Amino acid sequence: MQTATIKFERFQNSADEECQQRILAAKEKLGDRLVILGHHYQQEGVYKHAHFTGDSLKLSRHAADVDAEFIVFLGVHFMAEVADILSRPEQIAILPDLSAGCSMADMANLAKVERSFRELNKVLDFDQEVTPLTYINSAADLKAFCGEHGGIVCTSTNATKMLEWSFARREKVLFFPDQNLGRWSGYKMGIPLEQMPVWDPDQPMGGLTEEQIKNAKILLWKGHCAVHQMFRPQNIIKFRNEHPEGKVISHPEAPFEVCLQSDYVGSTEYIVKTITDSAPGTRWLVGTELNLVNRLAERFKPDGKIVQFMSHVVCECSTMARIDPQHLAWTLENLAAGNVVNQIKVLPEEARLAKLALDRMLEAS
Ligand code: 13P
Ligand code: SF4
Questions:
Q1: 56 CA to middle of ligand 2, Å?
Q2: Do 116 and 89 have their domain in common?
Q3: Are residues 67 and 91 in the same domain?
Q4: What pLDDT score was predicted for residue 317?
Q5: CA of 158 to the centre of ligand 1 (A)
Q6: pLDDT of residue 314
């Protein structure tokens, strides 16, 4: 039975503890009509309510597999869009706070990508020579662009594999929006740095000469994650001087020099798994978002594992943090009362083309 939508103002000033009780009660009421997917960067107060946790790849697979009527995404906007695209039409994807975006995803938009496509077409035959490859951290219309132009999506787990997929079809790749993930993945494949120039979408011809474009293997979109950009090679040097036995692990969104000096580089799920599988008493320096690092530090304290954050400044993803117990309680109580709030719905044609690119990734990985 539907009632009038409950306004968020009624939750805004509620204490976390009260919200926890309300979340549990609404979850109980909704039963298996509800699945909550939680990204590793989420704050503890909501993360603990997730039915499934993971990195972007793992959560996309869950979104494609689950049967629940409501898929509530504890993450950012592009993740809820992917859940909507990969789930069945009658399932409903929800983001508890619509302002939870990804600042890196916003560094590329369709107008700029289409302008880049037109400019590259002046010196190349784009659809014959260039595979557009978008990081999953991008809006649905960019995934649709890739679907339409023979391209594909990647995550931080499978970027190298998706580059191989791309090069098996065309000789060049336009990689957006994260230059760091593109550069690190290309480097691991043995592509020289000079064949991976940065394409600046705000400059005519990306700021490159015709020769640079023709010589390029990967054109790296000028975009980055402001959170991971804070990590520095000096953080690693200091750690190694103080703890020569320690290990360093970073997310591939970190700057190239940081990845180069790390012992391990991989997705959030890979970071969780690597530290989980390490021996008791080991010490780790971790270059990724603070909520995840704090969770790992707490979790492994009893095993004598020491998990340290890579930076001396706070690197929290402020948009991930927007999903708090207040927004989750508000969302679930509305669902339990028969009101859908904050549904994420991608336009049908855009969803169809984006799904092409996502399905290519899921098949290839
Ligand atoms: P993962 O897919 O590794 O979880 O990365 C998502 C993300 O946004 C990292 O900043
Ligand atoms: Fe986006 Fe960076 Fe936040 Fe990940 S950490 S969601 S890339 S802004």
A1: 11
A2: no
A3: yes
A4: 96
A5: 12
A6: 83
> Is residue 303 located within the same domain as residue 328?
no
Range of the domain at 159: 105-225
Domain match, 174 and 277 both? no
Contact between 53 and 79 under an 8 Å Cβ cutoff? The reply is no
Side-chain half-sphere exposure of 238, counting CA atoms within 13 A:
11
Q: How far is the CA of 242 from the centre of ligand 2 (A)?
A: 30
Q: How far is the C-alpha of 355 from the C-alpha of 295, rounded, in Å?
A: 33
- Which residue puts its alpha carbon closest to atom 4 of ligand 1? 55
Q: How far apart are CA 154 and CA 150, in angstroms?
A: 14
Q: Point out which residues pair with 39 in neighbouring strands.
A: 54
Residues with CB under 6 A from ligand 2: 76, 102-104, 137, 225, 227, 253, 289, 317, 319-320
Q: Examine the domain organization and report whether 194 and 124 are in the same domain.
A: yes
Q: What percent of the chain has pLDDT over 90?
A: 97
Ranges of residues in the chain whose predicted pLDDT is under 70 = 1-2
Task: Give the pLDDT confidence score for residue 315 in this predicted structure.
Answer: 80
Sheet with 306-309: strands ordered across: 264-265, 247-250, 283-287, 306-309
pLDDT at 2: 64
Question: How far is ligand 1, taken at its centre, from the CA of residue 364, in Å?
Answer: 19
**Inter-residue contact 6 to 333 (CB < 8 Å):** yes
Is there a single domain that holds both residue 269 and residue 178? Answer: no
- Ligand 1 contacts (CB < 6 A) are 40, 55-56, 137, 155-156, 225, 251, 253, 267-268
